[in-house]
Amino acid sequence: MDLASLSKLAPLSVAVVLGTRPEVVKLAGLIRLLGPGCRLIHTGQHYDESMSKVFLDEFELERPHVSLAVGGGSRARQISDALLALDGHFSESRPGVVVVQGDTNSTVAGALAANCNDIPLVHIEAGMRSYDLRMPEEHNRVVADHLATVCCAPTEGNAANLKNEGIPAHRISITGHTVIEAVAEKLPTSAARADLLGRYGLQPSAFVMSTFHRAENVDNPVGLEQILRALGKLSLPAVLPLHPRTRRRAEDYGLGSLLRSIITLAPLDYRTFLALCAESALIVTDSGGVQVEATVYPRPLVVVRDSTEYPEIVGTFATLVPPSGDIVAAAERWLERMPVAVEELSELPNPYGDGNASARCLEAVEASVKSASPD
User: Which amino acids are annotated catalytic?
Assistant: First the structure.
Protein backbone atom coordinates (compact mmCIF):
# COMPACT_ATOMS: atom_id res chain seq x y z
CA MET A 1 0.00 0.00 0.00
CA ASP A 2 1.65 3.26 -1.10
CA LEU A 3 1.54 6.68 0.52
CA ALA A 4 -0.68 8.05 -2.23
CA SER A 5 -3.43 5.57 -1.41
CA LEU A 6 -3.08 6.23 2.30
CA SER A 7 -3.63 9.95 1.70
CA LYS A 8 -7.23 9.15 0.71
CA LEU A 9 -8.02 8.70 4.41
CA ALA A 10 -8.83 11.94 6.17
CA PRO A 11 -7.13 12.48 9.54
CA LEU A 12 -8.81 10.47 12.32
CA SER A 13 -11.46 9.20 9.88
CA VAL A 14 -11.09 5.52 10.89
CA ALA A 15 -12.10 4.76 14.47
CA VAL A 16 -10.25 1.63 15.66
CA VAL A 17 -11.93 0.33 18.82
CA LEU A 18 -9.95 -2.02 21.06
CA GLY A 19 -9.67 -2.81 24.73
CA THR A 20 -7.46 -5.84 25.37
CA ARG A 21 -3.87 -6.99 24.93
CA PRO A 22 -4.65 -9.40 22.05
CA GLU A 23 -6.43 -6.66 20.13
CA VAL A 24 -3.38 -4.41 20.36
CA VAL A 25 -1.17 -7.23 19.05
CA LYS A 26 -3.50 -8.13 16.19
CA LEU A 27 -4.35 -4.57 15.13
CA ALA A 28 -0.92 -2.93 15.48
CA GLY A 29 0.03 -3.49 11.84
CA LEU A 30 -3.21 -2.00 10.53
CA ILE A 31 -3.04 0.94 12.94
CA ARG A 32 0.41 1.82 11.67
CA LEU A 33 -0.70 1.52 8.04
CA LEU A 34 -3.64 3.83 8.74
CA GLY A 35 -1.25 6.47 10.08
CA PRO A 36 -3.00 9.81 10.64
CA GLY A 37 -6.25 8.30 9.39
CA CYS A 38 -6.52 6.25 12.62
CA ARG A 39 -8.52 7.43 15.62
CA LEU A 40 -7.51 4.94 18.32
CA ILE A 41 -10.16 4.31 20.97
CA HIS A 42 -9.27 2.17 24.00
CA THR A 43 -12.24 0.99 26.04
CA GLY A 44 -10.15 0.06 29.08
CA GLN A 45 -11.45 -3.53 29.16
CA HIS A 46 -7.88 -4.51 30.07
CA TYR A 47 -7.05 -1.75 32.52
CA ASP A 48 -3.96 -3.27 34.17
CA GLU A 49 -0.77 -1.52 32.94
CA SER A 50 0.89 -4.89 32.28
CA MET A 51 -1.97 -5.89 29.97
CA SER A 52 -2.53 -2.62 28.08
CA LYS A 53 -0.03 0.28 28.09
CA VAL A 54 3.04 -1.95 27.88
CA PHE A 55 1.75 -3.47 24.62
CA LEU A 56 0.95 -0.09 23.08
CA ASP A 57 4.50 0.97 23.89
CA GLU A 58 6.02 -2.25 22.58
CA PHE A 59 4.32 -1.83 19.20
CA GLU A 60 5.28 1.87 19.16
CA LEU A 61 1.69 3.02 18.98
CA GLU A 62 0.62 6.49 20.09
CA ARG A 63 -1.53 7.03 23.14
CA PRO A 64 -5.21 6.41 22.37
CA HIS A 65 -7.09 9.47 21.16
CA VAL A 66 -9.99 8.39 23.36
CA SER A 67 -9.80 6.32 26.58
CA LEU A 68 -13.08 5.09 28.06
CA ALA A 69 -11.94 3.19 31.17
CA VAL A 70 -14.90 0.79 31.36
CA GLY A 71 -12.97 -1.27 33.91
CA GLY A 72 -13.37 -4.84 35.08
CA GLY A 73 -17.09 -5.24 35.66
CA SER A 74 -19.38 -7.98 34.40
CA ARG A 75 -19.71 -8.70 30.71
CA ALA A 76 -23.05 -6.87 30.53
CA ARG A 77 -21.60 -3.87 32.39
CA GLN A 78 -18.51 -3.68 30.20
CA ILE A 79 -20.51 -3.89 26.97
CA SER A 80 -23.20 -1.42 28.07
CA ASP A 81 -20.73 1.13 29.47
CA ALA A 82 -18.54 0.96 26.35
CA LEU A 83 -21.57 1.14 24.05
CA LEU A 84 -22.97 4.24 25.73
CA ALA A 85 -19.60 5.98 25.71
CA LEU A 86 -18.90 5.08 22.07
CA ASP A 87 -22.40 6.13 21.02
CA GLY A 88 -21.85 9.53 22.60
CA HIS A 89 -18.44 9.93 21.00
CA PHE A 90 -19.60 8.89 17.53
CA SER A 91 -22.57 11.25 17.77
CA GLU A 92 -20.26 14.18 18.56
CA SER A 93 -17.40 13.26 16.21
CA ARG A 94 -18.51 10.88 13.49
CA PRO A 95 -15.77 8.74 11.88
CA GLY A 96 -15.97 7.51 8.31
CA VAL A 97 -15.68 3.88 9.34
CA VAL A 98 -15.30 1.84 12.54
CA VAL A 99 -12.87 -1.09 12.84
CA VAL A 100 -13.18 -3.82 15.47
CA GLN A 101 -11.26 -7.06 15.89
CA GLY A 102 -12.06 -10.52 17.20
CA ASP A 103 -14.54 -11.42 19.89
CA THR A 104 -14.08 -9.30 23.02
CA ASN A 105 -16.65 -7.21 24.87
CA SER A 106 -14.98 -4.18 23.29
CA THR A 107 -15.53 -5.75 19.86
CA VAL A 108 -19.27 -6.16 20.24
CA ALA A 109 -19.66 -2.73 21.88
CA GLY A 110 -17.84 -1.09 18.96
CA ALA A 111 -19.92 -3.01 16.44
CA LEU A 112 -23.20 -2.02 18.10
CA ALA A 113 -22.15 1.61 18.42
CA ALA A 114 -21.27 1.76 14.72
CA ASN A 115 -24.62 0.19 13.86
CA CYS A 116 -26.54 2.61 16.09
CA ASN A 117 -24.91 5.53 14.30
CA ASP A 118 -25.18 4.07 10.78
CA ILE A 119 -21.39 4.01 10.35
CA PRO A 120 -19.73 1.37 8.12
CA LEU A 121 -18.09 -1.39 10.16
CA VAL A 122 -15.05 -3.53 9.32
CA HIS A 123 -14.61 -6.67 11.43
CA ILE A 124 -11.08 -8.07 11.51
CA GLU A 125 -10.77 -11.83 12.25
CA ALA A 126 -14.29 -12.50 11.02
CA GLY A 127 -15.90 -15.90 10.51
CA MET A 128 -14.20 -17.62 13.43
CA ARG A 129 -16.56 -20.20 14.92
CA SER A 130 -16.33 -22.65 17.81
CA TYR A 131 -20.06 -23.46 17.58
CA ASP A 132 -20.08 -23.48 21.37
CA LEU A 133 -22.75 -21.03 22.53
CA ARG A 134 -21.62 -21.38 26.14
CA MET A 135 -18.69 -19.15 25.19
CA PRO A 136 -19.41 -15.40 25.48
CA GLU A 137 -16.80 -14.84 22.76
CA GLU A 138 -18.89 -16.84 20.29
CA HIS A 139 -21.85 -14.50 20.74
CA ASN A 140 -19.61 -11.43 20.44
CA ARG A 141 -18.01 -12.54 17.18
CA VAL A 142 -21.30 -13.60 15.57
CA VAL A 143 -22.93 -10.25 16.36
CA ALA A 144 -19.95 -8.32 14.97
CA ASP A 145 -19.92 -10.40 11.77
CA HIS A 146 -23.57 -9.86 11.04
CA LEU A 147 -23.37 -6.12 11.66
CA ALA A 148 -20.20 -5.66 9.59
CA THR A 149 -20.10 -3.94 6.24
CA VAL A 150 -16.95 -5.92 5.46
CA CYS A 151 -15.86 -9.14 7.19
CA CYS A 152 -12.09 -9.72 6.99
CA ALA A 153 -11.87 -13.51 7.24
CA PRO A 154 -8.46 -15.07 7.93
CA THR A 155 -9.11 -18.32 6.01
CA GLU A 156 -11.29 -19.87 3.33
CA GLY A 157 -12.97 -21.88 6.08
CA ASN A 158 -13.86 -18.70 7.97
CA ALA A 159 -15.32 -17.25 4.78
CA ALA A 160 -17.37 -20.42 4.27
CA ASN A 161 -18.77 -20.06 7.81
CA LEU A 162 -19.96 -16.56 6.97
CA LYS A 163 -21.55 -17.61 3.68
CA ASN A 164 -23.33 -20.49 5.44
CA GLU A 165 -24.89 -17.93 7.78
CA GLY A 166 -26.24 -15.89 4.88
CA ILE A 167 -23.58 -13.18 4.69
CA PRO A 168 -23.13 -12.37 0.98
CA ALA A 169 -19.78 -12.86 -0.71
CA HIS A 170 -19.37 -9.16 -1.53
CA ARG A 171 -19.17 -8.42 2.21
CA ILE A 172 -16.36 -10.96 2.76
CA SER A 173 -12.63 -10.44 2.19
CA ILE A 174 -10.12 -13.27 2.80
CA THR A 175 -7.06 -11.62 4.32
CA GLY A 176 -5.02 -14.12 6.33
CA HIS A 177 -4.44 -13.60 10.04
CA THR A 178 -2.80 -10.40 11.26
CA VAL A 179 -1.02 -12.11 14.17
CA ILE A 180 1.34 -13.84 11.71
CA GLU A 181 3.05 -10.54 10.93
CA ALA A 182 3.06 -9.53 14.59
CA VAL A 183 5.05 -12.66 15.44
CA ALA A 184 7.40 -12.13 12.49
CA GLU A 185 8.04 -8.58 13.70
CA LYS A 186 8.50 -9.23 17.42
CA LEU A 187 9.99 -12.72 17.72
CA PRO A 188 13.53 -12.21 19.09
CA THR A 189 16.56 -13.72 17.37
CA SER A 190 17.98 -17.03 18.55
CA ALA A 191 20.72 -15.22 20.46
CA ALA A 192 18.24 -12.91 22.16
CA ARG A 193 16.04 -15.87 23.05
CA ALA A 194 19.01 -17.60 24.66
CA ASP A 195 19.66 -14.51 26.79
CA LEU A 196 16.03 -14.42 27.91
CA LEU A 197 16.08 -18.11 28.83
CA GLY A 198 19.13 -17.46 30.98
CA ARG A 199 17.35 -14.61 32.72
CA TYR A 200 14.60 -17.00 33.81
CA GLY A 201 16.87 -19.97 34.54
CA LEU A 202 15.41 -22.06 31.71
CA GLN A 203 16.94 -24.40 29.15
CA PRO A 204 15.81 -24.78 25.50
CA SER A 205 13.05 -27.37 25.00
CA ALA A 206 13.24 -28.32 28.68
CA PHE A 207 10.02 -26.69 29.89
CA VAL A 208 6.34 -26.40 29.01
CA MET A 209 4.89 -22.92 28.42
CA SER A 210 1.32 -22.39 29.60
CA THR A 211 -1.31 -19.62 29.64
CA PHE A 212 -4.86 -19.61 30.99
CA HIS A 213 -7.37 -16.80 31.17
CA ARG A 214 -10.73 -17.86 29.69
CA ALA A 215 -13.79 -17.68 31.91
CA GLU A 216 -14.79 -21.32 31.35
CA ASN A 217 -11.46 -22.33 32.89
CA VAL A 218 -10.43 -19.72 35.44
CA ASP A 219 -13.92 -18.89 36.77
CA ASN A 220 -14.58 -22.57 37.47
CA PRO A 221 -12.90 -23.70 40.73
CA VAL A 222 -13.04 -27.38 39.76
CA GLY A 223 -11.70 -26.78 36.27
CA LEU A 224 -8.95 -24.43 37.42
CA GLU A 225 -7.85 -26.93 40.05
CA GLN A 226 -7.67 -29.71 37.42
CA ILE A 227 -5.57 -27.52 35.14
CA LEU A 228 -3.12 -26.45 37.85
CA ARG A 229 -2.75 -30.03 39.12
CA ALA A 230 -2.07 -31.24 35.57
CA LEU A 231 0.61 -28.58 35.00
CA GLY A 232 2.31 -29.67 38.21
CA LYS A 233 2.40 -33.33 37.11
CA LEU A 234 4.10 -32.88 33.74
CA SER A 235 7.48 -34.53 33.16
CA LEU A 236 8.93 -31.09 32.36
CA PRO A 237 8.45 -28.00 34.54
CA ALA A 238 5.52 -25.79 33.52
CA VAL A 239 6.02 -22.02 33.19
CA LEU A 240 2.84 -19.98 33.75
CA PRO A 241 2.76 -16.18 33.28
CA LEU A 242 -0.23 -15.36 35.47
CA HIS A 243 -2.93 -13.16 33.99
CA PRO A 244 -4.09 -10.89 36.87
CA ARG A 245 -7.56 -12.42 36.72
CA THR A 246 -6.19 -15.98 36.87
CA ARG A 247 -4.07 -15.14 39.91
CA ARG A 248 -7.08 -13.64 41.71
CA ARG A 249 -9.22 -16.69 40.99
CA ALA A 250 -6.53 -19.09 42.22
CA GLU A 251 -6.34 -17.13 45.47
CA ASP A 252 -10.13 -16.90 45.80
CA TYR A 253 -10.50 -20.68 45.36
CA GLY A 254 -7.72 -21.57 47.80
CA LEU A 255 -5.50 -23.03 45.08
CA GLY A 256 -2.35 -21.11 45.96
CA SER A 257 -0.53 -24.26 47.08
CA LEU A 258 -0.86 -25.73 43.56
CA LEU A 259 1.01 -22.76 42.12
CA ARG A 260 4.10 -23.78 44.09
CA SER A 261 4.64 -26.77 41.76
CA ILE A 262 4.62 -24.43 38.73
CA ILE A 263 7.06 -21.70 37.70
CA THR A 264 4.80 -18.65 37.87
CA LEU A 265 5.79 -15.36 36.28
CA ALA A 266 4.31 -11.88 36.17
CA PRO A 267 2.62 -10.97 32.85
CA LEU A 268 5.26 -10.74 30.13
CA ASP A 269 5.84 -8.24 27.36
CA TYR A 270 5.10 -9.65 23.93
CA ARG A 271 8.70 -10.21 22.81
CA THR A 272 9.58 -12.13 25.97
CA PHE A 273 6.41 -14.17 25.77
CA LEU A 274 7.11 -15.13 22.16
CA ALA A 275 10.71 -16.01 23.01
CA LEU A 276 9.72 -18.37 25.82
CA CYS A 277 7.03 -20.01 23.70
CA ALA A 278 9.43 -20.50 20.79
CA GLU A 279 12.05 -22.12 23.07
CA SER A 280 9.61 -24.36 24.95
CA ALA A 281 9.03 -28.03 24.24
CA LEU A 282 5.25 -27.63 24.26
CA ILE A 283 2.55 -25.03 24.90
CA VAL A 284 -0.52 -25.80 27.04
CA THR A 285 -3.08 -23.03 26.72
CA ASP A 286 -6.66 -21.85 26.36
CA SER A 287 -5.66 -18.76 24.36
CA GLY A 288 -6.93 -18.17 20.85
CA GLY A 289 -4.07 -15.97 19.72
CA VAL A 290 -1.41 -18.37 20.97
CA GLN A 291 -2.90 -21.09 18.78
CA VAL A 292 -2.10 -18.97 15.71
CA GLU A 293 1.25 -17.74 17.00
CA ALA A 294 2.50 -21.29 17.55
CA THR A 295 2.15 -22.05 13.83
CA VAL A 296 4.97 -19.57 13.15
CA TYR A 297 7.70 -20.77 15.59
CA PRO A 298 6.43 -23.61 15.33
CA ARG A 299 5.58 -25.45 18.56
CA PRO A 300 2.98 -28.15 19.35
CA LEU A 301 -0.02 -27.23 21.47
CA VAL A 302 -2.40 -28.80 23.93
CA VAL A 303 -5.50 -26.58 23.79
CA VAL A 304 -7.46 -26.99 27.02
CA ARG A 305 -10.99 -26.13 25.94
CA ASP A 306 -14.19 -27.90 25.02
CA SER A 307 -14.06 -26.31 21.56
CA THR A 308 -11.89 -24.03 19.48
CA GLU A 309 -12.49 -21.42 16.79
CA TYR A 310 -9.20 -22.57 15.19
CA PRO A 311 -10.12 -26.02 13.82
CA GLU A 312 -7.49 -25.70 11.08
CA ILE A 313 -4.74 -26.75 13.50
CA VAL A 314 -6.48 -29.54 15.44
CA GLY A 315 -4.82 -32.85 14.56
CA THR A 316 -1.71 -31.15 13.18
CA PHE A 317 -0.27 -28.41 15.39
CA ALA A 318 -2.72 -28.94 18.25
CA THR A 319 -4.49 -31.50 20.41
CA LEU A 320 -7.84 -30.33 21.80
CA VAL A 321 -8.53 -31.56 25.34
CA PRO A 322 -11.49 -30.54 27.54
CA PRO A 323 -10.61 -29.18 31.00
CA SER A 324 -12.08 -32.36 32.48
CA GLY A 325 -9.95 -34.55 30.18
CA ASP A 326 -6.51 -36.05 30.64
CA ILE A 327 -4.33 -33.02 30.04
CA VAL A 328 -1.20 -34.79 31.26
CA ALA A 329 -1.59 -37.72 28.84
CA ALA A 330 -2.15 -35.37 25.89
CA ALA A 331 0.92 -33.34 26.79
CA GLU A 332 3.14 -36.37 27.35
CA ARG A 333 2.22 -37.81 23.94
CA TRP A 334 3.70 -34.69 22.36
CA LEU A 335 6.74 -34.65 24.66
CA GLU A 336 7.55 -38.27 23.81
CA ARG A 337 7.86 -37.27 20.14
CA MET A 338 10.17 -34.31 20.64
CA PRO A 339 12.15 -33.00 18.76
CA VAL A 340 10.78 -34.90 15.75
CA ALA A 341 7.35 -33.36 16.27
CA VAL A 342 8.73 -29.83 15.83
CA GLU A 343 10.57 -30.85 12.67
CA GLU A 344 7.35 -32.26 11.23
CA LEU A 345 5.38 -29.12 12.11
CA SER A 346 7.99 -26.89 10.48
CA GLU A 347 7.28 -28.61 7.15
CA LEU A 348 3.54 -27.88 7.24
CA PRO A 349 2.12 -24.88 5.34
CA ASN A 350 0.79 -22.18 7.63
CA PRO A 351 -3.03 -22.19 7.40
CA TYR A 352 -3.23 -18.52 8.41
CA GLY A 353 -1.58 -16.84 5.48
CA ASP A 354 1.58 -15.17 4.26
CA GLY A 355 2.01 -12.32 6.74
CA ASN A 356 0.36 -9.61 4.64
CA ALA A 357 -3.06 -9.58 6.31
CA SER A 358 -2.88 -5.99 7.59
CA ALA A 359 -2.38 -4.61 4.06
CA ARG A 360 -5.42 -6.58 2.86
CA CYS A 361 -7.45 -5.33 5.82
CA LEU A 362 -6.42 -1.77 4.91
CA GLU A 363 -7.87 -2.29 1.44
CA ALA A 364 -11.17 -3.32 3.03
CA VAL A 365 -11.13 -0.23 5.25
CA GLU A 366 -10.41 2.08 2.32
CA ALA A 367 -13.21 0.50 0.29
CA SER A 368 -15.62 1.02 3.19
CA VAL A 369 -14.64 4.67 3.53
CA LYS A 370 -15.04 5.20 -0.20
CA SER A 371 -18.47 3.51 -0.30
CA ALA A 372 -19.70 5.69 2.57
CA SER A 373 -18.43 8.97 1.08
CA PRO A 374 -20.85 11.18 -0.86
CA ASP A 375 -20.21 11.41 -4.59
Answer: 213
Model confidence pTM above 0.85: yes
The third-level CATH classification (topology) of the domain covering 3-176+356-372 is Rossmann fold (3.40.50)
Residues 28 and 61: beta-carbon distance below 8 Å: yes
CATH topology of domain 189-346: Rossmann fold (3.40.50)
52 to each of 21, 31, 124, how far by Cα in Å? 6, 16, 19
H/E element holding 176?
none
Alpha carbons 281 and 297: distance in angstroms, whole number: 11
Residue 375: predicted pLDDT: 53
Distance CA 44, CA 57 (A): 16
Which of 76-109 are b and which e, b meaning 16 or more Cβ less than 10 Å from the residue's Cβ? eebbbbbbebbbebbeeeebbbbbbbbbbbbbbb
Nearest to 88 by CA among 96, 99, 80, 76: 80
Give the whole-angstrom CA distance, residue 327 versus residue 302: 8
Q: How far is CA 315 from the centre of its chain?
A: 21
> What local confidence, expressed as pLDDT, does residue 374 receive?
59
Task: With a cut of 50, list the residues of the chain below it in pLDDT.
Answer: 1-7, 50-51
